[in-house]
Design brief:
Strands 3-2-1-4-5-6-7 form a 7-stranded parallel β-sheet, with helices on both faces. The radius of gyration is 22 Å and the shape is globular. Helix 2 links the parallel strand 2 and strand 3. Helix 5 packs across helix 6 and helix 8 packs across helix 9. The chain has 16 helices and 13 strands. It folds into 2 domains: about 240 residues, Glycogen Phosphorylase B (Rossmann fold, 3-Layer(aba) Sandwich); about 160 residues, Rossmann fold, CATH 3.40.50. The chain is an alpha/beta fold.
Length: about 425
Amino acid sequence: MNILFVSPYVPNKIRVRPYNWIRHLALRGHQISLLTVCASDEDRLALDVIEDYCERIKQVNLPNWQSLINCIKALPSREPLQAVYSWDSNLADDLYQLATSTNGAGTYDVIHIEHLRGARYGVDLISRSGLDKSPLPIVWDSVDSISLLFRQAMIHSKSFLSREITRFELGRTEHYEGWLVGEFDRVLVTSKNDREALLSLSQTGVDESQVVVLPNGVDLEYFTPGDNDDRESKAIVLSGKMSYHANESMVLGFMDEIMPQVWSRHPDAEVWIVGKDPPPKIQSYAQNSKVTVTGTVADIRPYLKKATISASPINYGVGIQNKVLEAMACATPVIASKQAVSALSVEEGEEIIIADGPIEFADKLNSLLDDPNKREIIGKAGREFVEENHDWKRGAARLEDFYIEAINQREPIVNRDVEFQPELVD
């Protein structure tokens, strides 16, 4: 298939979902044309990696100040700020020209649009077509329900600013997401919770079968188990983009409410806080000699492979927590909150340890620090779990099926290579 892929940010190893869809679809023999938004020099460097899997790339430069102007302009409207954050009319023009042209670019079979931030490009294309649908089938990967995240953040976020922004955005986002569900040929989400949230917002008459769950995967060739002999004896790792409000709240709660109980029993325990853009409060924890705050790292794997335990006491969030899958893939034993694993079909005490609340979390963390044999068993079972359930290769094959369904729903099987079943390229 010839796929037109629209992403409101450059796919990379942090933006794992679009990066791996593009990568594995290309390895399955499909042709990908990527339209994307660059916000920084880091984004432009990431294009050098993703271009290996794309037939062509069209990008626009959209600095953060321009995204801020987009948001300010949207304030008087009912449109969510998330929907306009990555908007650029030049990229919308490129999408329209490629979707409607049959010369040069050839004919595309399907359009894939990533995230709520990218949805406006699909809406614009439909509007320009003068019809009630786009010229080509559109598969919108919502990823998560942003309004579901906002409802949780209003209650649980430790940041006053985050709570107020989500309070302002919630009503508009609920209305917008509910409307979007009926605009596209297929809607993808990472978990059944997100699917239920979107359907609860959707308008009457929406075909619920068109909203489907396609979980995140993990790169099992990149994230591999290390040698248990190389692990530190008492090093706890917390990972993720630290400027993300849910991760910031996770770290603050862990350091202020859980670690004092751990240090009372294990005074030599270390904490590694690994992830880009830690805010000042998180950086301040590094004043303690037992705490390391790394900021951006080129490669997170050494931290996961050397850590004794990976902790994810996240108290709100949506979709699948990639940090959990990555640690499990490295056979690092994970202790996590129920919220962190709500989208995973794991068994407590088998592939993972689940704990909620500071007291229970600290108790189970202390017990796991005392039991190297259990840590090894949990780590091995976690690796086996992701091998069986969260391989990007299998996910890309399912995504391919959703494309074909969207194409066939639009028109009879005429001049479409819908029976195409490519061999997997290693």
